[in-house]
Write a structure and sequence with these properties.
The protein is an all-alpha fold. The protein has 8 helices and no strands.
Length: 188
């Protein structure tokens, strides 16, 4: 009754809180906590206002992307879906997106790297590279394991949650770039 199906459209929201058992619930919560810990470690050396902005984006984004993934599942399937894994995968996608932006926006001196004398920004860049390669590499190399493929597992919602989470970071960043460009052009 609370799972997502065509007969229970409210399930796109309520299915996040419904699980097939204690192991399903526990697994989702452990993985979600692990990703949230990774998020904190990824962001710990960023300026506080940047951390605040990213954390305010992460929470609503992962829930919204999880619900969108559930909604699209109902469009393409006559099945039902339960669990928070769409939210968990959206969280992972958002963190992958943040790691990608950190890796792209940072600077790295190979001379400092060779001497192991990295400043805070260079360490942050390396952290972004490592997290991005780890998460995205796992997705590319081990899709079945990444999506937790198996009987009764909604890999569609998993994949879509991840892609929507990752894409939401990129779209938001492009929007901010556009806004900065517009405001600098109007200021001239």
């Amino acid at each position: 009754m609370l799972s997502a199906s065509r007969n229970t459209p409210w399930g796109i929201f309520t299915s996040i809180f419904v699980h097939s058992g204690v192991a399903h619930f526990g697994g989702n919560m452990v993985v979600l906590l692990a990703f949230l810990f990774l998020f904190v470690k990824l962001e710990e050396t960023l300026p506080q206002e940047h951390q605040y902005k990213d954390s305010r984006f992460l929470g609503p984004s992962m829930f919204l992307r999880g619900m969108i993934a559930n909604s699209l599942f109902l469009v393409v399937s006559i099945g039902s879906s339960a669990g928070a894994s769409g939210v968990v995968y959206a969280c992972e996608g958002v963190i992958t997106g943040f790691a990608f932006l950190i890796a792209l926006s940072g600077r790295l001196s190979f001379a400092h790297l060779k001497r192991r004398q990295l400043d805070t920004q260079e360490r942050q860049t390396i952290r972004g590279i490592v997290v991005f390669i780890g998460l995205f590499g796992f997705f590319l190399l081990f899709r079945g394991a990444f999506l937790s493929s198996g009987q009764g597992v909604n890999t569609f919602v998993h994949l879509l949650g991840y892609i929507l989470g990752f894409a939401s970071v990129g779209v938001t960043e492009l929007y901010h770039i556009f806004r900065r460009t517009q405001s600098s052009n109007t200021g001239k």
